[in-house]
Design brief:
Blueprint: H1 5-19, H2 26-37, E1 42-47, H3 53-59, H4 66-73, E2 75-78, H5 87-99, E3 106-110, E4 113-114, E5 123-127, E6 130-133, H6 134-144, E7 147-151, H7 153-157, E8 170-171, H8 173-180, E9 186-189, H9 196-209, H10 221-224, H11 235-239, H12 267-270, H13 309-312
Length: about 325
């Protein structure tokens, strides 16, 4: 599908909002998009132990629209939910990707990797009347990929499937690949689910400039550099030491169990559902879903933080 420079510029301007990049780079971004558009960089999307929430979140993207992403920016060669092919034809696509010697595609993994029982908790399909699992193909695909995006907290850190007692041996993508001895760049994009801007913004950054700057947990600093608490709409109440005793009251929610001080993400600035709202402003609280120790390390959800938290804890 071909499209004009004007259409590209419009797309670029929209993308800037999601990626948080200054408009002064618009000409460079337009040029970069034009240079990759006709190549349509290949993206392989695998799903492990998850509820599919990150795929659904991706479909809700506004800048750019999902149609623009799929038809004008990337070539989504494999996705268990979004691909039109099914059955053996679908499996042949994955097999062809495995056999290719190219290393230009971007591998996206949603969901944790279940390693117990030979990986049979996550069966992708059948070949020669034998089933094959996620762990059967992930190593080869990761090795041949250009870069790996671990989308969602399950994929990045293990998430809810890794919660004790973890009967399926669930773990994050990076941890799994390290056990295999595969050294590949893994970019963790946590969240339950991950915000579509975080997914697409990271993808666009890779296409424009290469790998984004990452923190010590391999998260893009572009989205995960500050804590929820630092930019919270209720921070004024915290500075005034006004703490709510119930969710319906005005005041900081820390004493009710808000995990904003523990959690690094820009939810309070970016908001969700096309900028309509976010957890705290909608009347809830941050449950720390972007944190590496979610959920076990932040449970119980409704528990107050220690009073000396800001003097004694390192926030991740």
């Amino acid at each position: 599908m071909k499209f004009t420079r004007r259409e590209f510029l419009k797309l670029c301007g929209s993308t800037l909002v999601g990626a948080g990049i200054s408009r002064v780079y618009l000409p460079e971004i337009a040029s970069a998009l034009e240079s990759v558009a006709y190549g349509h960089p290949s993206v392989i999307w695998l799903q492990g132990a998850s509820d599919g929430g990150c795929s659904l979140s991706l479909l809700n993207t506004a800048h750019p629209k999902i149609s623009e992403l799929l038809f004008k920016i990337i070539s989504l060669r494999y996705h268990p939910t979004l691909s039109t092919a099914q059955g053996n034809i679908f499996n042949l696509i994955l097999e062809k990707v495995k056999e290719d010697s190219i290393d230009k595609y971007i591998l996206v993994v949603e969901g944790s990797i279940q390693t117990a029982y030979g990986g049979r908790c996550c069966i992708l399909g059948e070949k020669d009347n034998k089933s094959f699992t996620l762990i059967d193909v992930l190593g080869d695909l990761a090795y041949k990929s250009n870069v790996i995006l671990a989308v969602g907290s399950c994929s990045a850190f293990g998430g809810i499937p890794k919660g004790e007692p973890n009967p399926t041996g669930a773990m994050g993508v990076k941890e799994f690949l390290e056990e295999l001895g595969i050294e590949k760049t893994v970019i963790n994009i946590p969240g339950c689910p991950a915000h579509p801007d975080w997914i697409i913004g990271t993808l666009i950054h890779i296409l424009f400039y290469g790998l984004p700057e990452l923190d010590f947990l391999h998260r893009p600093k572009l989205f995960f550099d500050k804590t929820i608490h630092e930019n919270c709409s209720r921070y004024y109440y915290f500075s005034e030491r006004r703490f709510a005793s119930s969710l319906g009251e005005e005041g900081c929610l820390i004493n009710l169990g808000c995990k904003g001080p523990y959690t690094r993400a820009d939810c309070s600035l970016r908001r969700w559902n096309k900028g309509v709202n976010w957890c705290v402003e909608s009347g809830g609280m941050c449950i720390g879903c972007c944190s590496p120790n979610f959920p076990d390390g932040l449970s119980p959800i409704y528990s107050a933080l220690p009073q000396d938290f800001f003097l004694s804890q390192e926030r991740v």
